[in-house]
TrEMBL record:
SUPFAM superfamilies: FAD-linked oxidoreductase
Catalysed conversion reaction: L-proline + a quinone = (S)-1-pyrroline-5-carboxylate + a quinol + H(+)
Proline dehydrogenase domain mapped to chain residues: 149-561
EC number, UniProt record: 1.5.5.2
Enzyme category, top tier: oxidoreductase
Pfam annotation, one family: Pro_dh
Name used for this protein in its record: Proline dehydrogenase
Gene: prodha
């Protein structure tokens, strides 16, 4: 096999590492600050108790504009819940209280199945709409969710739409669907859905907005989101193609990163920050010759300016010719055998679907938010999202990638992508989350025997989140081409962001920093921010009751820590109910 495609990849992956291109100092990494601590912090994000209103000075960029002082009171229940009638407040109290019982959370699926048998389908759906479904899901289809989107928008809160249809599968069903997904059934007028497989634990989940009637349902998300000013539509890459391909692709990218680390180690630069690992060209060429990658003349030709290009990363379709080192003796093994014709078709179809979504979103003035998924899919997801950003983020940030800060490598991922966007001149868009797959990731790491990819504890995740956020805010201050959504239910993190915006003279009207929370959670954060002029969004799931139940079940498991620590929110809900009772506003209806 020819090696002519191997080493141009090395150069394109890290051009600055080879030629010493100026790198911005990682000031965010070295900045020291104390992490705010809340009492009894759970393992998952929660709304921390805040004793005082958050007063934030926001300075506009124009020098002649006077400093404006904005006071945001997260304890003002009248403002926080002015979009809710009293029945909605009572429902929130009931749902949050039920979610504090471990038995109900652990057995939620079995209990819902039992309720369906006891009450029948129609009564079961009514009960769900009065409780959990009504609290966390906007409606069944694009028409039924519009009133909620419009109401939230009237109170300063935008929407991130997510068609949250999932289906649980048995092992046999999963294997059958996995085989079926090898064929191009997505292009046909079928009801095919896409399989998401946890190969470590054989946990199957079937997601389905896109592959069935792709051109109807997914672009429809963008149309509805367009009714919300500067709205978002959320997508999952595992719903755009065969997850097994994403798994293979991710494996290649991880091995390629290890190969680069090996080359850095040969120059004594292992252990350095990723943006500091600049490889000397002559030493790199010598290492590659010793590894037997190719002849000296061939290797020298690989590093010409024409061959290097400006992309900084290799195109996915060239991945199959990579080689990596297996040990210090220099033995090489192929990263992945050549993609079959069918696998290449799968990639092309996935890219085509991404292209359709992105174009449709741009045409309707909507931004796409690519959700993060499990670590064994995420390298490929991030890589494909980056390709979309290169194309569609030239004039404005239309595509946002998601970074999970409970991962040990989160800061490296953020800093590399920010640096790449600077060099190539496109808008960086990021959503920062703490993460949703902690238990699953740790179980899989223990079962298979690799290093736990998750930070050791909640405080470490907090530090990682703030470190990544500081880095992006510094980049925004540097050139105004970076953008971030602070997707957090933690009041301390929101206050931290507001303080940093003040320090960097960043005004909310620039729309460079926005905030996000799940529908039905932490309204005392979302609505005060929105009414104060900050861009803030609710993550809005929708879909038929029966088909959204697996989503609700999964969310209950993922957010159990937050729900158990929701005493703060329940106390504010009680406070607002008492205020309405004693002020004669118990029958209050929001006007908009």
């Amino acid at each position: 096999m020819s090696y002519c495609k191997v080493i141009p990849a090395v150069a394109r992956v890290k051009p600055a590492h080879l030629f010493g291109v100026r790198l911005r100092s990682t000031a965010a990494a070295s900045t020291q600050h104390k992490e705010p601590k809340s009492e009894d912090a759970p393992l998952d994000p929660s709304c921390a108790v805040v004793e005082k209103p958050c007063e934030v000075d926001l300075i506009r960029r124009k020098a002649h504009t006077e400093r404006q002082r904005i006071s945001i009171d997260f304890d003002n229940t009248q403002e926080a819940y002015k979009s809710k009638d009293t029945l909605e407040l009572l429902r929130s109290l009931l749902v949050f209280k039920l979610c504090t019982f471990d038995f109900l959370v652990d057995k939620n699926k079995e209990l819902m199945d039992l309720s369906k048998k006891v009450f029948g389908q129609r009564l079961f759906e009514k009960l769900m709409k009065m409780t959990f479904y009504g609290q966390f899901v906007a409606g069944e289809d694009q028409n039924t969710i519009k009133p909620l989107i419009e109401k939230n928008q009237a109170f300063g809160v935008g929407s991130v739409l997510d068609y949250s249809v999932e289906e649980d599968l048995t092992q046999e069903e999963a294997e059958k669907k996995e085989m079926d997904s090898c064929v191009s059934e997505a292009e046909k007028e079928s009801h095919g859905k896409n399989l998401k497989v946890d190969l470590g634990k054989c946990v199957q989940m079937y997601r389905a907005p896109f592959l069935s009637q792709f051109t109807k349902s997914a672009p429809g998300n963008c149309v509805v989101a367009g009714s919300s000013v500067d709205g978002f539509s959320a997508i999952k890459m595992t719903a755009l193609g065969r997850p097994q391909f994403l798994l293979q692709f991710s494996e290649v990218l991880v091995k390629w990163r290890r190969f680069f680390n090996l080359l850095a180690a040969h120059q004594g630069k292992d252990g350095m920050a990723i943006l500091e690992q600049k490889l000397e060209l002559e030493q790199l060429q010598d290492s590659l010759i010793k590894l037997g990658v190719g002849a000296k003349s061939d290797i020298e030709n690989w590093f010409t300016g024409e061959k290097l290009g400006s992309s900084g990363l290799l195109h996915p379709l060239q991945i199959s010719t990579f080689y990596t080192s297996t040990d210090s003796s220099g033995h090489l093994e192929p990263l992945l055998s050549k993609f079959t014709d069918e696998e290449e078709k799968q990639m092309k179809r996935m890219l085509q679907r991404m292209d359709v979504l992105a174009k449709h979103a741009v045409e309707n003035g909507v931004r796409l938010m690519v959700d993060a998924e499990q670590t064994y899919f995420q390298p490929a997801i991030s890589r494909l999202t980056l390709e979309m950003q290169r194309i569609f983020n030239r004039e404005k940030p239309n595509i946002f990638n998601t970074y999970q800060c409970y991962l040990r490598e989160a800061y490296d991922n953020v800093s590399v992508d920010v640096e790449l966007s600077r060099r190539e001149g496109w808008y960086f868009g990021a959503k920062l989350v703490r993460g949703a797959y902690m238990c699953q990731e740790r179980s899989r790491a223990a079962e298979i025997g690799y290093e736990d990819p998750i930070n050791p504890d909640y405080e470490a995740t907090n530090r990682m989140y703030h470190k990544c956020l500081e880095y992006i805010l510094e980049e925004i201050n540097h050139n105004r081409m970076a953008n971030v959504m602070v997707a957090s239910h933690n009041e301390d993190t929101v206050k931290f962001t507001l303080e940093k915006m003040n320090e960097t003279s960043l005004s909310p009207t620039e729309n460079k920093v926005c905030f996000g929370q799940l529908l039905g959670m932490c309204d005392q954060i979302s609505f005060p921010l929105g009414q104060a002029g900050f861009p803030v969004y609710k993550y809005v799931p929708y879909g038929p009751v029966n088909e959204v139940i697996p989503y609700l079940s999964r969310r209950a498991q993922e957010n159990r820590g937050f729900m158990k620590g929701s005493q703060r929110e329940r106390s504010l809900l009680w406070k607002e109910l008492k205020r309405r009772l004693f002020s004669g506003q118990l029958l209050y209806k929001p006007a908009y």
